[in-house]
Write a structure and sequence with these properties.
By secondary structure, the chain is of the alpha/beta class. It has helices at residues 9-18, 51-64, 102-105, 143-152, 162-172, 191-216; strands spanning 2-6, 20-27, 30-37, 40-46, 69-78, 88-96, 120-121, 130-135, 157-159, 175-185. A five-stranded mixed barrel has the order 5-9-8-6-10.
Length: 217
């Protein structure tokens, strides 16, 4: 079964609006929905915001739903002009920029214990432009974070879940892919204000592209 891991109910709403829902329940304080969308049988776990919520939701999908592929879908922040508000991008790699064992093991920032590289690979999706994501448990306009993400790590997009989801999938030998919808762009004003202003644009974009996304996974 293919399972979508989505942080917030409002991000999952376009899927539920298009779906025929077979089962809808709560497990571990997370909404779990089994449904069919555009002829595909899928599961959706609304995991909550942040890395721990995302990791626990992903592990539930793998262990309890038998997920054979995890798809993360949600809004995220752009880090440069190479992405646009409302644009939907496939992710080919993700790093946890707030994970730092550099002084202990001498590796690059974001390199997880027992891993050789800081970026974790994801399955790319045909028909969508590819980008790299930096994940951290922070929603801010901090300039040091911006420099870390762009100059040190070369990330295109930042979010709060994908790096943890990719880690769980790699450890469980389950394929992972992701789609990010851009709600704000660094350097274009307050992240919080952009996010609030552009959410409707993101959800319209998702509705318009949902059939394409479902057909591609």
């Amino acid at each position: 079964m293919k399972c979508f891991i989505i942080a917030m109910e409002k991000e999952a709403a376009p899927i539920f609006e298009a779906a025929e829902i077979h089962k809808d329940y709560t497990a571990g304080n997370k909404r779990v929905v089994l449904c069919s969308v555009y002829g595909r049988e899928i599961a959706v776990v609304v995991c909550g915001v942040g890395k721990v919520n995302a990791a626990s939701g992903t592990q539930y999908a793998i262990d309890c739903l038998g997920a054979t592929e995890i798809i993360n879908l949600g809004v995220a922040g752009g880090l440069h002009g190479g992405v646009e508000v409302g644009g939907i991008y496939s992710v080919f790699s993700a790093v946890q920029y707030d994970f730092d064992l550099v002084e202990l093991n001498g590796g690059k920032i974001g390199t997880l214990d027992g891993f050789d590289d800081n970026y974790l690979p994801l399955a790319p999706t045909d028909g969508f432009e590819l980008r790299r994501v930096g994940t951290g448990d922070r929603f801010n306009d901090d300039y040091d974070d911006f420099l870390l993400l762009t100059e040190t790590l070369g990330a295109d997009i930042r979010d709060m879940e994908l790096g943890a989801i990719a880690q769980v999938c790699m450890l469980s030998n389950v394929e992972c892919r992701a789609f990010k919808i851009i709600s704000d762009i660094a350097g274009s004003g307050s992240t919080t204000e952009q996010y609030a202003k552009n959410l409707d644009t993101c959800f319209v974009s998702l509705k318009n592209n949902l059939e394409k996304i479902i057909g591609a996974v």
